Structure formats: C-alpha cells, structure tokens
From TrEMBL:
It comes from the Bacteria. Residues 24-189 form the Band domain. Pfam families: Band_7 (PF01145). It is found in: Membrane. GO terms for cellular component: membrane. This is Prohibitin family protein. It comes from Zobellia amurskyensis. It is a single-pass membrane protein.
Amino acid sequence: MDKLPKIALPVIFGLILVVILFSKSTVTIDSGQAGVLYKTFGGGVVTDQPPMGEGFHLVAPWNRVTIYEVRQQEVMEKMNVLSSNGLDIKLEASAWFEPIRRDLGKLHQEKGQDYIQRVLLPTIRSAARSVVGRYTPEQLYSSKRDAIQQEIFDETQKIVSGQYIQLNEILVRDVTLPPTIKDAIERKLKQEQESLEYEFRLVTAKKEAEKVTIEAQGKADANRILSASLNDQILKDKGIDATLKLSESPNTKVVIVGGSDGLPLILGNN
C-alpha cells in the first residue's frame, strides 16, 4: 500500500464510490412487476406518471423504487360467520385480484405494500358476514352456494373498486356447518329424496294402469263393433270365399254343395 503512487488511492476510492453509486442507481424489474418511484427531493411518490415497467432502469441514487406484483394473485381467507338463525358457520373463500397498474403510485401512497391486509381481506370478511347472515344453514349447505359467492363478490367489489384494486373473482371453497346441523340437514334431504322417488313410482304405476285400461277398453270396443257388424249372410259369404280358395289347392278333394248351414262341404281323399 505504501508503494502505491499517491494518486492511486484516490482513484481506487473513487472507483469504489462509483460502483456503490451505480448499484444504488440501477433497478431491474422482473416480469409481472412494476415499480413506483419515490423522489426524495422531488415531491415524494410519483403518481402522475405510469409506473416503471419491466427491465433495467437508471434512477438517481437518492431516489427509491418500490416494486409491486401486478399479475393476478390469489389470497385465501378462513373465517367464522353467523347464519340467519345465529349458528356459527366456518367459511373458506379465496379472492382473485390484481392492483390497477395505472394507479399503482396512488395505491403505494395511500395504502402501502401491505394493502392486501389493510384493504382486501377486511373487506372480504365484512362482505362474507353480511351475506351469510341472510341465509339459513340449509341454504348454505345446498342450494345457495353460487348465489352466496356472487353476493360476496358484489359487496366486496363495491368497496375495493375505489381502492385501486381490481377484483376478478370470489370463490367460496368450503362451508362447514356444526356436525349436528349437518347431520340433520342430510337426513332431511335424504327423506325428501325418498319421498320424491315414492311419488315418481306412484305416478308411473298410475300411468301404467291407465295404459292397460285404455288398451282393454279399445279391444272391447273393437270386439263389440265386429260382433255388431256380423250376420248370417256375411258369415256364409266368407265361408264360400274360404271354400273357393281351398278348392284351388292341388290336394285331391270332393266338394259337396249344400250343407246343413248352406255352406259347401269339402271331403279329402284321406
């Protein structure tokens, strides 16, 4: 060190200083991220310009850049809520969301990086308690799951829409009822299903009976019409027609005209 020229030390320290300043003056923003610039001597957070995009950026060493995830994200929340009759319900829901890119500076200035805990999660909890409180445990367990999900989304959306957050979806993952209530609901649903199956069998049997009755009535009507249309002359004519057709057979036979009923008699050689 003593052997170095006197000018070498300032140069070395200068290079070190340049390296430090350069490292503090560069920012690399990855895919799916954006940066909010804070100007120490220029008014603080920059809110009147678009956030910094992906890639390499040079900034003054006395300024700061805060990086945010701007892709769609998911947050899960488990909560206890009360049904319309005051029963404790465990609800698990998730939200798909993303910060609004053009308002990222305002989000950083007003809410900060922990905006999920400050804004989004409390809003979801409040909306879930409000919505679930309108329904009975039976409705929560069965038919109203989709309606509840949509209502929680709508109520959450009303609040976060002015908080620089874009809410894309609310998903109700699970609804857990007290075991005794769940068992009672399942028994009731099973009884209703069995009742519907019994009613279906009754309707099917009734229709089958009606079908048999209609078929029998149709046959009876046909026989009555046929009987009413037959008389001795028609029977004789049909007998003569049948005899004539039989006489055309190649088998040996003797036809005697004039039987007791006026019909021809056919005698074979057997």
